[in-house]
Amino acid sequence: MATDKKEHLFKSGMIILDTNILLSLYRQSSRGSEQLLEILNAINERLWIPDHVVWEFIKNRPNVIYGQDRTSDALMEYLLEIRQEFNTRMSKYSNRVIMDPLERKERREEVDKYFDKIVESVKSIEVAPHRTLENDEIIERLERILDGRLGEAGTHDEYIKWGKEFKDRKSKEIPPGYKDADKGSNSDGDLIIWKQILKEAGSGGFPNGAIYVTGDKKEDLYRIVKGKTLGPRPEMIREFSENSVANEKFWQVDLNEFIVLASRLLSVDVDDVNTSLDTTERVPRRLACGSWDPDSYVQLIETLTERGYGNQAEVIKAAAINGGFVSRAEIYAICGFNQPRRLNGFSQPVVRIYRELLNPSGNSSVQMDLPMNARYFGPGKTIGYEVPLDFSFFECGNFSGWVEWDSEDPEYLNDPIFLELVNE
Asked: Is 160 found in the same domain as 254?
C-alpha cells in the first residue's frame, strides 16, 4: 500500500490492536509506556479491540508483570556465571603455564574490573519499572481509553464453528493462524481474533477501513519474499473486503510502523517507545459454560460482611484485584493476623455461604466455582488462596463487561519462581 493511502487509512479508519501490543505497555520504561498510552488516547475514538485479545491480555498480564523482574535477575545471574567460569578456566590455565603470581593477580583484577563495568552498564539500562497486579496504573488508564471500544464475545455455536473451520484452513494453509497448528489447544487464537474482526466488518463496524496492529510477524500473517515483509497476506485483504459492508480497505502493521505513523500524523512524542516485542502465546478459550455473575458476587461479599466475616470478604477482593490469587503474607497484612496464627478453617464461612447461594438441593442451573480455594506448593502449609477469575473482572470496573471468564488456572500460579515471590 502506498504511503499516502496508508496514512489516510491511519487517520480515518479503525485501529485494531493485537494482544502483544497491549502487553507491550508493561515492557516499556515509564516514559515509553506513557508515550504509547498517549498515542492510544489520541486515537481512542477509532480504537477497536477484539474480545479474544482482551481475553489473552488479562490471562497473560500477570506473567508479563512478574516476568520483568525475573528477566533482569536472570541476566545478572548469567553475567556472574560467565565471570565465575572465566576465573575458573583462567586458574586452570595459569597453573599449566609459567605465570608469576603477581601477574596472575593483576590479570584477575583486570577481568574483575571489566565485568564490574559490564554489570554497571546493564544496571544503567532503563527497563520497565517494577509493577504489581494490585498497583497498576497502566490497566487503569487502559480501562478509560478502551471504554466502549471492545468487541463482543463469540457465541457458543460460533466457537464450535470456528474450531472446525480452523482444521480445514490449516490443512489448506489459509491465513491467518495455520503456523500455530502444532500448538494444540492454543492453536486457533489467531483465527478467533480474525473471525471477530470479520464479524465486526460485516456489521458495518469499519466504515472507513481498518489497520490491524500486531507484533506477530509469521508468514501466516504477512507476505514475506526473500526475507522482506511486503505487507499483510493478500488472502486476508481479500477476505476482509469480501466480508465488509462496502468492500472496505484493510492493512496490517507492526508496532514499529505504527509508531512511525503516529509520530508523523499525531502530536505525540514516540522517542522512548520500545518496539521490540516478545512473542505472546495464544490462550485457549473454553466455551462459555456459566459461572459467577456480578450480582452473585456482590451478594457473596455483602453476606460475608453482614455475618461478621469481613476479613474473608476483603481477602477475596484482594485476590480478585491481584488477578485471582492472594498470598499468605498478604492475608496476614489484610486481617492483621500475627504470623504464628494458622489459616485452618479460614475459608469455611465462604464455602457455607456459597452453598446457600445455590438452590436448596445444593445444585444450581448455573455451575459456580468455589469462591475460595487454598493453594499449596508441595506438602506443607497453605501459601495463599485463589478465587475464580470472574471475580477479577467484577472488581476491576469496566473489565466486568469485557468478556466472560473461565476457571482455568493461570500458568503463573504454577511457577515456582512466582511462588517464591508470594510465599513468606
From this structure: yes
Residue 61 backbone phi and psi in degrees, to 5? -55, -50
* 3-state secondary structure (DSSP) of residue 39: helix
User: How large a percentage of the chain has pLDDT more than 90?
Assistant: 22
* Number of structural domains the chain divides into: 2
250 and 141: one domain? yes
Say how far apart CA 33 and CA 138 lie, in whole Å.
8
What is the spatial distance between Cα 296 and Cα 226, in angstroms, rounded to a whole number?
Answer: 57
Cis-peptide into 176, omega within 30 deg = yes
Residue with cell 515509564: 30
User: Inter-axis angle of helices 51-96 and 189-202, to 10 degrees?
Assistant: 150
Question: Which residues, 6 or more positions from 23, have their beta carbon under 8 angstroms from its beta carbon?
Answer: 57, 60, 61, 64, 280
> Kind of pairing, strands 373-375 and 384-386?
antiparallel
- Which pLDDT tens digit goes with each residue over 259-298? 889 988 887 777 767 666 555 555 544 433 346 777 788 8
Q: Where in the sequence is the domain holding 88, given as residue range(s)?
A: 1-286
- Both 181 and 302 in a single domain? no
